Amino acid sequence: MKAIQIHEYGNSNTLKLEEVPRRSISGDQILVRVHDAGVNPVDWKIRLGYRKEAIPAFFPLTMGQDFAGEVAECGKAVNRFRIGDRVFGFAQGTYAEYVAAPESTAAAMPQSVDFVTAAALPTPGLTALQIIRDVVCARSGMTVLIHGAAGGVGSLAVQIAKSFGAKVIGTASDEDIEYLKSLNADEVIDYKRERFEDRAHAVDAVIDLVGGETLARSYSVLKKSGVLVSTVQPIDELAAKTAGIRAMHLVMRPNAADLAELAALVEKSTLRLRVAQIIPLSEARKAQELSESRQDAWKGDFERGLMS
Fold it and tell me: Do the beta carbons of residue 245 and residue 226 sit within 8 Å?
């Protein structure tokens, strides 16, 4: 089968389209023929070696962790799936024609959801859901400020927070203001033209998807006992203590139950995804370069007809 692999850490030139043996599976795994695979910032961060101290890679490494496809084979201990089922979720090495996925990190796709949409859901969707539902505990009467609200995680966080009844303020660039309004964001701040501190005061929660100075400036806009959660860098514990807030760095936890919850939200049209471009497997380098330039809504289309 064809797969995108790296043999060392480095820039996008390390991504190679190669012929590799088709995966074998263990008892609790399913073999999935991949229709589409999501491209996320974590992919190129792994390629660059940002996580090598915590999670060392064993080369050659097949890239990717999000997929949507059809079950081609089931392990002996698999109970929830059958051959031919449409599934999506998480696995190691999804930039490939086939992937071995644990049953515990895969979910069935509703018939109304297509492969492109399903492949774009796992990483950004679970990140947004776990932030809004489990950390922020969004509810009616709460005000949530979301930095990077037009991105993959941010746009889903806006919609999930609204579904819980919260008021949402989003920061974005001018070209995304109308998009966020279409998602029913209550206010949108153009971060290039104005400081969010001038419009957001005593908010209940801040979701930081940007980091750096944006995160540093966010502690002051929260009310006492408010919550700040960042997905991109560690929290300044002293700043959080001084502000009297709860703060944490969230790492998403892959699991089938949350995937099923996301799929239901998409099926009910509570969530709408924006996929910017579909890219063939052979151009995975381009997909990661686009994501690395902070356009994180891109994904790769690994339809067999696009292979060469």
Answer: yes
Task: Give the contacts of 205 (CB within 8 A, at least 6 positions apart).
Answer: 136, 138, 142, 143, 144, 145, 222, 226, 227, 228, 229
Q: What is the pTM of this model?
A: 0.94
- What is the predicted pLDDT for the residue at 211? 95
What phi and psi, each to the nearest 5 degrees, are found at residue 239?
Answer: -65, -40
The answer to whether residues 88 and 121 touch, using CB atoms and an 8 Å cutoff, is: yes
- 295 has pLDDT over 70: no
37: nearest Cα among 85, 82, 69, 72: 69
pLDDT tens digits, 111-144: 999 999 999 999 999 999 999 999 999 999 999 9
Instruction: Give yes or no for a contact between 32 and 87, defined as CB atoms under 8 angstroms apart.
Output: yes
Query: Which structural domain range is residue 290 located in?
Result: 2-120+275-306
Beta bridge partners of 88: 68, 107
CB proximity list for 299: less than 8 A, separation 6 or greater: 36, 37, 38, 39, 116, 119, 120, 275, 277, 278, 279, 287
Q: Kindly state whether residue 216 falls inside one of the protein's structural domains.
A: yes
**Considering its fold, how many domains does the chain have in total?**
2
C-beta separation of 86 from 36 below 8 A: no
Domain co-membership, 187 together with 142: yes
Which of 247, 222, 220 is closest to 234 using CA atoms?
247
The 10s digit of each residue's pLDDT in 98-107 is: 999 999 999 9
Q: pLDDT tens across 146-157, in order?
A: 999 999 999 999
Spatial CB neighbours of 182, under 8 Å, sequence gap ≥ 6: none
What is the share, in percent, of the chain residues with pLDDT greater than 90? 90
Tell me if 128 is assigned to some domain.
yes
For residue 68, count other CB atoms closer than 10 A to its CB. 29
